[in-house]
Design goal:
The chain is 44% helix and 14% strand. By secondary structure, the chain is of the alpha/beta class. The strands form 3 sheets. It has a 6-stranded parallel β-sheet. A 3-stranded parallel β-sheet has the order 3-2-4, sandwiched between helices. Strands 9-10 form a two-stranded antiparallel ribbon. The structure holds NADPH dihydro-nicotinamide-adenine-dinucleotide phosphate.
Length: 305
Protein backbone atom coordinates (compact mmCIF):
# COMPACT_ATOMS: atom_id res chain seq x y z
CA UNK A 1 0.00 0.00 0.00
CA UNK A 2 1.41 3.44 -0.86
CA UNK A 3 2.09 5.80 2.00
CA UNK A 4 -0.28 8.76 2.24
CA UNK A 5 1.54 12.02 3.00
CA UNK A 6 -0.84 13.83 5.33
CA UNK A 7 -0.42 17.53 4.61
CA UNK A 8 -2.81 18.59 7.36
CA UNK A 9 -0.68 16.98 10.09
CA UNK A 10 2.54 18.48 8.67
CA UNK A 11 0.89 21.91 8.36
CA UNK A 12 -0.31 21.68 11.98
CA UNK A 13 3.27 20.98 13.15
CA UNK A 14 4.58 24.01 11.21
CA UNK A 15 1.82 26.22 12.61
CA UNK A 16 2.70 25.07 16.12
CA UNK A 17 6.35 26.05 15.51
CA UNK A 18 5.24 29.43 14.14
CA UNK A 19 3.07 29.99 17.24
CA UNK A 20 6.11 29.39 19.43
CA UNK A 21 8.20 31.81 17.37
CA UNK A 22 5.44 34.43 17.62
CA UNK A 23 5.46 34.00 21.41
CA UNK A 24 9.23 34.42 21.54
CA UNK A 25 8.99 37.59 19.42
CA UNK A 26 6.20 38.94 21.65
CA UNK A 27 8.63 38.76 24.56
CA UNK A 28 10.79 41.22 22.57
CA UNK A 29 7.81 43.48 21.87
CA UNK A 30 7.46 42.34 18.24
CA UNK A 31 4.19 41.18 16.69
CA UNK A 32 4.53 40.02 13.06
CA UNK A 33 1.81 41.52 10.88
CA UNK A 34 0.29 40.47 7.57
CA UNK A 35 -1.76 42.75 5.29
CA UNK A 36 -4.03 40.99 2.82
CA UNK A 37 -5.40 42.95 -0.12
CA UNK A 38 -8.56 41.40 -1.53
CA UNK A 39 -10.12 43.15 -4.53
CA UNK A 40 -13.83 42.80 -5.32
CA UNK A 41 -15.86 39.68 -4.64
CA UNK A 42 -14.28 36.59 -6.24
CA UNK A 43 -15.79 33.78 -4.09
CA UNK A 44 -12.71 31.50 -4.16
CA UNK A 45 -10.41 34.44 -3.29
CA UNK A 46 -12.71 35.45 -0.42
CA UNK A 47 -12.51 31.92 1.01
CA UNK A 48 -8.69 31.79 0.72
CA UNK A 49 -8.17 35.23 2.26
CA UNK A 50 -10.63 34.60 5.07
CA UNK A 51 -8.77 31.46 6.04
CA UNK A 52 -5.38 33.27 5.88
CA UNK A 53 -6.66 36.04 8.17
CA UNK A 54 -8.21 33.49 10.53
CA UNK A 55 -4.96 31.52 10.71
CA UNK A 56 -3.08 34.73 11.61
CA UNK A 57 -5.44 35.16 14.57
CA UNK A 58 -5.00 31.53 15.66
CA UNK A 59 -1.20 31.82 15.61
CA UNK A 60 -1.03 35.24 17.28
CA UNK A 61 -0.03 37.32 14.24
CA UNK A 62 -1.53 40.73 13.57
CA UNK A 63 -3.50 40.90 10.34
CA UNK A 64 -5.34 43.54 8.39
CA UNK A 65 -7.70 43.00 5.49
CA UNK A 66 -7.91 45.71 2.83
CA UNK A 67 -10.80 45.37 0.39
CA UNK A 68 -10.76 47.78 -2.56
CA UNK A 69 -13.75 47.57 -4.94
CA UNK A 70 -13.39 45.69 -8.25
CA UNK A 71 -13.32 49.07 -10.06
CA UNK A 72 -9.97 49.90 -8.41
CA UNK A 73 -7.24 51.27 -10.73
CA UNK A 74 -3.57 50.29 -10.93
CA UNK A 75 -2.62 53.70 -9.49
CA UNK A 76 -4.93 53.27 -6.50
CA UNK A 77 -3.53 49.79 -5.88
CA UNK A 78 0.04 51.11 -6.14
CA UNK A 79 -0.85 53.73 -3.49
CA UNK A 80 -2.20 51.00 -1.19
CA UNK A 81 0.98 48.94 -1.61
CA UNK A 82 3.24 51.98 -1.09
CA UNK A 83 1.46 52.77 2.20
CA UNK A 84 1.85 49.15 3.37
CA UNK A 85 5.53 49.15 2.39
CA UNK A 86 6.01 52.17 4.70
CA UNK A 87 4.19 50.75 7.72
CA UNK A 88 6.33 49.32 10.48
CA UNK A 89 3.55 47.11 11.89
CA UNK A 90 3.24 45.26 8.57
CA UNK A 91 5.84 42.59 7.79
CA UNK A 92 4.08 40.75 4.98
CA UNK A 93 1.95 42.00 2.09
CA UNK A 94 -0.29 39.59 0.29
CA UNK A 95 -2.15 40.59 -2.87
CA UNK A 96 -4.75 37.95 -3.57
CA UNK A 97 -4.80 36.97 -7.23
CA UNK A 98 -6.43 37.11 -9.71
CA UNK A 99 -6.91 40.87 -9.97
CA UNK A 100 -9.47 42.58 -12.23
CA UNK A 101 -8.38 43.02 -15.86
CA UNK A 102 -7.76 46.79 -15.60
CA UNK A 103 -5.10 46.28 -12.89
CA UNK A 104 -1.51 45.71 -14.01
CA UNK A 105 -0.73 42.64 -11.87
CA UNK A 106 2.99 42.55 -12.68
CA UNK A 107 3.49 46.23 -11.86
CA UNK A 108 1.76 45.67 -8.56
CA UNK A 109 3.69 42.57 -7.54
CA UNK A 110 6.91 44.38 -8.44
CA UNK A 111 5.87 47.30 -6.22
CA UNK A 112 5.74 45.17 -3.06
CA UNK A 113 8.91 45.65 -1.04
CA UNK A 114 10.97 42.44 -1.48
CA UNK A 115 11.43 42.38 2.31
CA UNK A 116 7.62 42.13 2.75
CA UNK A 117 6.99 39.83 -0.23
CA UNK A 118 5.70 36.86 1.76
CA UNK A 119 4.30 35.21 -1.38
CA UNK A 120 7.83 35.16 -2.82
CA UNK A 121 6.60 36.48 -6.20
CA UNK A 122 8.92 39.52 -6.49
CA UNK A 123 11.72 39.14 -9.10
CA UNK A 124 14.27 40.04 -6.41
CA UNK A 125 13.17 37.06 -4.32
CA UNK A 126 13.02 34.82 -7.42
CA UNK A 127 16.59 35.87 -8.22
CA UNK A 128 17.79 35.36 -4.65
CA UNK A 129 16.18 31.92 -4.62
CA UNK A 130 17.96 30.99 -7.83
CA UNK A 131 21.27 32.32 -6.54
CA UNK A 132 20.93 30.30 -3.34
CA UNK A 133 20.77 33.45 -1.17
CA UNK A 134 18.37 33.95 1.76
CA UNK A 135 14.99 34.62 0.17
CA UNK A 136 11.29 34.52 0.88
CA UNK A 137 10.36 31.45 -1.21
CA UNK A 138 6.87 31.00 -2.69
CA UNK A 139 4.62 29.25 -0.17
CA UNK A 140 3.34 26.23 -2.12
CA UNK A 141 6.79 25.19 -3.44
CA UNK A 142 8.30 25.67 0.03
CA UNK A 143 5.48 23.49 1.37
CA UNK A 144 6.37 20.71 -1.07
CA UNK A 145 9.91 20.61 0.33
CA UNK A 146 8.57 20.55 3.90
CA UNK A 147 6.35 17.57 3.07
CA UNK A 148 9.29 15.61 1.63
CA UNK A 149 11.69 16.50 4.45
CA UNK A 150 9.30 16.01 7.35
CA UNK A 151 8.20 12.66 5.87
CA UNK A 152 11.89 11.62 5.78
CA UNK A 153 11.73 11.00 2.05
CA UNK A 154 15.13 11.33 0.39
CA UNK A 155 15.64 14.25 -2.04
CA UNK A 156 19.42 14.31 -2.51
CA UNK A 157 20.46 12.29 -5.56
CA UNK A 158 16.84 11.54 -6.53
CA UNK A 159 15.56 12.29 -10.01
CA UNK A 160 12.80 14.86 -9.52
CA UNK A 161 10.56 15.58 -12.50
CA UNK A 162 8.39 18.71 -12.25
CA UNK A 163 5.53 18.99 -14.72
CA UNK A 164 4.67 22.70 -15.02
CA UNK A 165 6.92 25.75 -15.27
CA UNK A 166 4.88 28.59 -13.82
CA UNK A 167 6.62 31.32 -11.87
CA UNK A 168 4.55 30.58 -8.79
CA UNK A 169 4.83 26.77 -8.62
CA UNK A 170 6.80 24.87 -11.28
CA UNK A 171 9.99 26.97 -11.52
CA UNK A 172 10.44 27.68 -7.80
CA UNK A 173 9.73 24.08 -6.77
CA UNK A 174 12.31 22.90 -9.31
CA UNK A 175 14.86 25.37 -7.90
CA UNK A 176 14.17 24.31 -4.31
CA UNK A 177 14.56 20.63 -5.26
CA UNK A 178 17.84 21.47 -7.00
CA UNK A 179 19.10 23.20 -3.84
CA UNK A 180 18.28 19.97 -2.00
CA UNK A 181 20.58 18.14 -4.46
CA UNK A 182 17.92 16.42 -6.55
CA UNK A 183 18.59 15.94 -10.26
CA UNK A 184 15.77 18.01 -11.70
CA UNK A 185 13.92 17.86 -15.01
CA UNK A 186 11.26 20.47 -15.78
CA UNK A 187 8.50 19.56 -18.26
CA UNK A 188 5.83 21.70 -19.90
CA UNK A 189 3.28 21.69 -22.69
CA UNK A 190 5.94 21.45 -25.41
CA UNK A 191 7.77 18.49 -23.82
CA UNK A 192 7.99 15.55 -26.24
CA UNK A 193 6.93 12.09 -24.98
CA UNK A 194 6.09 13.38 -21.52
CA UNK A 195 5.29 9.89 -20.20
CA UNK A 196 8.82 8.67 -20.99
CA UNK A 197 10.22 11.53 -18.89
CA UNK A 198 7.78 11.20 -15.97
CA UNK A 199 8.40 7.43 -15.81
CA UNK A 200 12.02 8.26 -14.91
CA UNK A 201 10.96 10.23 -11.83
CA UNK A 202 11.74 9.13 -8.29
CA UNK A 203 9.85 12.26 -7.21
CA UNK A 204 7.13 13.47 -9.58
CA UNK A 205 5.64 16.91 -8.95
CA UNK A 206 2.47 17.70 -10.89
CA UNK A 207 1.64 21.42 -11.19
CA UNK A 208 -0.31 21.54 -14.42
CA UNK A 209 -3.87 22.66 -13.72
CA UNK A 210 -5.49 19.76 -15.60
CA UNK A 211 -7.69 17.27 -13.76
CA UNK A 212 -6.13 13.82 -13.41
CA UNK A 213 -3.59 14.54 -16.16
CA UNK A 214 -0.88 12.17 -14.82
CA UNK A 215 -2.16 8.70 -15.73
CA UNK A 216 -0.94 5.47 -14.05
CA UNK A 217 1.27 4.48 -17.00
CA UNK A 218 3.21 7.76 -16.62
CA UNK A 219 4.40 6.80 -13.14
CA UNK A 220 7.35 4.63 -12.12
CA UNK A 221 6.30 2.01 -9.55
CA UNK A 222 7.26 3.16 -6.06
CA UNK A 223 7.75 6.84 -7.00
CA UNK A 224 6.82 9.70 -4.68
CA UNK A 225 3.92 11.65 -6.20
CA UNK A 226 3.41 15.27 -5.17
CA UNK A 227 0.13 16.53 -6.55
CA UNK A 228 -0.09 20.32 -6.44
CA UNK A 229 -3.19 20.54 -8.65
CA UNK A 230 -6.55 21.77 -7.45
CA UNK A 231 -9.31 21.24 -10.01
CA UNK A 232 -12.99 21.50 -9.17
CA UNK A 233 -15.30 18.90 -10.73
CA UNK A 234 -18.93 19.90 -11.03
CA UNK A 235 -20.49 17.54 -13.59
CA UNK A 236 -21.52 13.92 -13.14
CA UNK A 237 -19.48 12.92 -16.17
CA UNK A 238 -16.27 14.44 -14.75
CA UNK A 239 -16.98 12.90 -11.37
CA UNK A 240 -17.44 9.41 -12.82
CA UNK A 241 -14.22 9.71 -14.82
CA UNK A 242 -12.22 9.82 -11.60
CA UNK A 243 -14.33 8.63 -8.70
CA UNK A 244 -16.96 6.16 -9.98
CA UNK A 245 -17.60 3.65 -7.19
CA UNK A 246 -15.96 5.77 -4.45
CA UNK A 247 -18.76 5.91 -1.85
CA UNK A 248 -17.13 8.56 0.36
CA UNK A 249 -16.55 10.94 -2.55
CA UNK A 250 -20.03 10.18 -3.86
CA UNK A 251 -21.61 11.33 -0.58
CA UNK A 252 -19.53 14.53 -0.56
CA UNK A 253 -20.34 15.25 -4.22
CA UNK A 254 -24.06 14.72 -3.60
CA UNK A 255 -23.94 17.10 -0.63
CA UNK A 256 -21.86 19.91 -2.18
CA UNK A 257 -22.48 19.46 -5.89
CA UNK A 258 -18.72 19.45 -6.52
CA UNK A 259 -15.48 17.82 -5.49
CA UNK A 260 -11.84 18.47 -6.21
CA UNK A 261 -9.28 16.35 -7.98
CA UNK A 262 -5.58 17.01 -8.42
CA UNK A 263 -3.42 16.89 -11.54
CA UNK A 264 -2.71 13.20 -10.85
CA UNK A 265 -5.30 10.58 -11.74
CA UNK A 266 -6.44 8.85 -8.49
CA UNK A 267 -5.58 5.46 -10.07
CA UNK A 268 -1.95 6.61 -10.52
CA UNK A 269 -1.56 6.93 -6.74
CA UNK A 270 -1.88 3.14 -6.52
CA UNK A 271 1.51 2.81 -8.28
CA UNK A 272 3.25 5.24 -5.93
CA UNK A 273 5.46 4.53 -2.94
CA UNK A 274 4.10 7.69 -1.31
CA UNK A 275 1.73 10.43 -2.43
CA UNK A 276 0.00 13.62 -1.39
CA UNK A 277 -3.80 13.26 -1.57
CA UNK A 278 -6.10 15.96 -2.94
CA UNK A 279 -7.53 17.46 -0.85
CA UNK A 280 -5.36 17.26 2.28
CA UNK A 281 -1.88 17.00 0.74
CA UNK A 282 -0.04 20.07 -0.54
CA UNK A 283 -3.00 22.45 -0.02
CA UNK A 284 -2.77 22.84 3.79
CA UNK A 285 0.94 23.66 3.54
CA UNK A 286 0.37 26.84 1.55
CA UNK A 287 -1.18 28.80 4.43
CA UNK A 288 1.25 27.29 6.97
CA UNK A 289 4.20 28.48 4.85
CA UNK A 290 2.61 31.92 4.46
CA UNK A 291 2.55 32.24 8.25
CA UNK A 292 6.12 30.98 8.45
CA UNK A 293 7.23 33.47 5.77
CA UNK A 294 5.53 36.35 7.60
CA UNK A 295 7.40 35.57 10.82
CA UNK A 296 10.62 35.14 8.85
CA UNK A 297 10.05 38.50 7.11
CA UNK A 298 9.49 40.14 10.51
CA UNK A 299 12.79 38.72 11.75
CA UNK A 300 14.75 39.48 8.57
CA UNK A 301 13.60 43.10 8.53
CA UNK A 302 14.92 43.48 12.09
CA UNK A 303 18.15 41.59 11.44
CA UNK A 304 17.04 38.69 13.67
CA UNK A 305 16.93 35.86 11.09
P1 LIG B 1 -0.22 27.54 -14.69
O1 LIG B 1 -1.41 27.43 -15.56
O2 LIG B 1 0.41 28.86 -14.46
O3 LIG B 1 0.93 26.56 -15.26
C1 LIG B 1 0.62 25.28 -15.74
C2 LIG B 1 1.86 24.63 -16.28
O4 LIG B 1 1.48 23.34 -16.76
C3 LIG B 1 2.48 25.39 -17.46
O5 LIG B 1 3.87 25.47 -17.31
C4 LIG B 1 2.09 24.54 -18.67
O6 LIG B 1 3.07 24.50 -19.70
C5 LIG B 1 2.00 23.15 -18.06
N1 LIG B 1 1.12 22.34 -18.86
C6 LIG B 1 -0.14 22.63 -19.27
N2 LIG B 1 -0.61 21.64 -20.07
C7 LIG B 1 0.38 20.73 -20.19
C8 LIG B 1 0.50 19.51 -20.89
N3 LIG B 1 -0.48 19.05 -21.66
N4 LIG B 1 1.66 18.83 -20.77
C9 LIG B 1 2.67 19.28 -20.00
N5 LIG B 1 2.60 20.45 -19.30
C10 LIG B 1 1.48 21.16 -19.40
O7 LIG B 1 -0.63 26.84 -13.31
P2 LIG B 1 -0.03 27.03 -11.83
O8 LIG B 1 1.40 26.64 -11.82
O9 LIG B 1 -0.43 28.33 -11.28
O10 LIG B 1 -0.88 25.92 -11.03
C11 LIG B 1 -0.77 24.56 -11.34
C12 LIG B 1 -1.80 23.81 -10.52
O11 LIG B 1 -1.50 23.95 -9.15
C13 LIG B 1 -3.24 24.28 -10.68
O12 LIG B 1 -4.09 23.16 -10.57
C14 LIG B 1 -3.44 25.19 -9.48
O13 LIG B 1 -4.80 25.24 -9.09
C15 LIG B 1 -2.63 24.46 -8.46
N6 LIG B 1 -2.15 25.31 -7.36
C16 LIG B 1 -2.28 24.83 -6.09
C17 LIG B 1 -1.83 25.53 -5.02
C18 LIG B 1 -1.98 24.94 -3.66
O14 LIG B 1 -2.03 25.66 -2.68
N7 LIG B 1 -2.04 23.61 -3.54
C19 LIG B 1 -1.23 26.85 -5.17
C20 LIG B 1 -1.03 27.25 -6.55
C21 LIG B 1 -1.50 26.50 -7.59
P3 LIG B 1 3.43 25.80 -20.60
O15 LIG B 1 4.30 26.66 -19.72
O16 LIG B 1 4.18 25.24 -21.75
O17 LIG B 1 2.14 26.44 -20.94
Amino acid sequence: MPRVLDGATIAAAIKQEVTEEVRALAAQGIRPGLAAVLVGHVPASEIYVRSKVQTCAELGLFSELITPPDTVTTEEMLDIVAALNDRDDIDGILIQLPLPKQVDTKALLDAVSPSKDVDGFHPVNAGRLQAGRPALAPCTPAGVIEILKRSNLPISGQHAVVVGRSDIVGKPVAMLLLHQNATVTICHSKTRDLGAVTREADILVAAIGRPGFIEPEMVKAGATLIDVGINRLTTREEFDRFFAGDAKREAAFAKRGSTIVGDVHPKAFERAGAYTPVPGGVGPLTIAMLMSNTVRAAKMRRGLD
